[in-house]
Amino acid sequence: MKSRNIISYIVLLLIVLGVVVTLIEHPLLIIIPLVLFGLIVYWIKKPPAFLNKGRQADNGYYRAASKQSKAKKERPRSKTVPFKVIEGGRDDNDTPRYH
Length: 99
Fold this sequence. Notes:
The chain is built from 3 helices and no strands. By secondary structure, the chain is mainly α. It has a domain of 64 residues. The radius of gyration is 34 Å and the shape is elongated. The protein starts with a helix and ends in a 26-residue tail after the last helix.
């Protein structure tokens, strides 16, 4: 178990060392992907106005449709009919043929 722990620390140290060396020698290789990732996350959380125009019209339609479906659900339901028991023609004392 300790050997896995040591190997994990060595791999983590090598990853950190590689990132630091890359930042020192070629900083754009790390900065550009981080900026792009940050922009994508930001646009997912808060989309720009030009992308959001089509969604506003759809949201209004969705709200109206959901109100109509709720109004349909609130109607009184029809009267429930209890189940009818149909008497069978078999005697309880009969044993099945396959026993």
